[in-house]
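Allow me, if you will, to draw on your knowledge of protein folds for a short while. I have a record of one protein: its chain in single-letter code and its fold written as discrete structure tokens. Could you please explain, in whatever detail you think fit, how the structure tokens follow from the sequence? The record follows directly beneath this note:
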Amino acid sequence: LNLCLGLRILAVILLVNVSAVVLFSLFRLGPSTLFISSGNYSLIEQPPESNGIIATSYNDAIVSDNHEAQDISKSYRRLESVSSSKPNIFNESKYPREQKQKIAWVHIGPPKTASTHLQTFGTIYANKFSSAQVDWILGITPTCAFVQYIVYEREKDKQEYDAFLSDMTEKNRKSGHDLFISFEGWAVTRDTRPLEMLKNIFNDYDVRIIHIYRDPMSHLLSHYNQQNKGYGRRITTKSLTSEILGRYTSSTAFRVYFTDSITLKRIVDIFGRNALHIVDLAGSATTGHDITYTVYCEVMGVLCDQRDLFLKTDVGKNPREDLVMMHVNSIFIGYLSNIKRSDAVHDGRGVSRCQYCSELYHTASNWFQRWYDRKMLARDKIRYKIPTTQVNLSMLIPYMDGLVNEVWDIYGDLILHGDKAAVHASIRSNSMTETLDFDEFIHSLPWLSIFEEALEDARKVPGLLCNC
């Protein structure tokens, strides 16, 4: 998936959510802000010569990071590591908006930290932001070119990038309003150039960087699951333990996803320490705040008097998923890609592969899961039960504790709703996890006959498969 497609996916999600929203009265005036939001990531795996941004996953289009925040919150409570005294949910803003210089708020993620929830909330309640003189802009193509040019600085994106700046940010500068950009991919880029470019773009603004913190163990597991959902790009053939130890913790490109100190140091080096605002995702939840309230009211000072909005925490929330079945479907996608046709289709680069027609992964995954439940498990629940295994990651606890200590030692005074003890507790509660037992799946299940039957039935569904 490229970045533009990811934005279109987000737009579809937003349309579904908008239909369920009740309009409220418009009130509260304040400094106006321009919001530009983009919901795709996985920039670090793109080879320099590649054509477009390859996203191994669309941020939270499938797994709800907001659900995960609530799950982590429950773990904190179970371990009784959170203070019993909770502040009033509607506190005053921690960072008052009264200032002379214009502010450019830059929410950089990272991925898997409620980014879709934050972005969807802002888009659905655009009228509320508007009544507070806050302009929320979700530009599909312009935003796509804007983000891609900042990340890769390719000449083909330059014209749309310039047009976007001229049409949106320059008008905003002249109006004297603040500005807000949300793109979680800026926290996980290969180097510092995109952040440096952002600083140059908004050099006459008081730039404030919003970074959402999540405990590194659950963050790592969430990223691992996101990478292994399929998208027809890769198949899980290694155990979770060996893949995490061999790739995720040894490569800087992957470590940046859950090693916040890398990104935080970049921010401080480029924008200065005073520009950094860190929010503890689960810490916010345990104090009774939804992350939208924490970011928009407590950090930015927006819509603090619109209390009912922040009580609707289902806004932008994605459904839970059966990750084990999604991993099995990723193997099925690999099987489809090897189907040979006598009437091979060429697309100029080679033979097109058999694949799901939709590039929306959840559409394909939902079909496969329904098919497996109704066909295979209905036939024999015992024989066709998908094997899983409990993975013990306790050997990573000292490493994860070190990551937490590093962040708290250097940036602890900047973390809003931070609870270091609770973060350490969450690391331990997430050290045991369930995943697909790939070896058992291959050796104990008649997977070839299962996939052959799935292919036969999938071909009967109009528009499900292409080039098969």
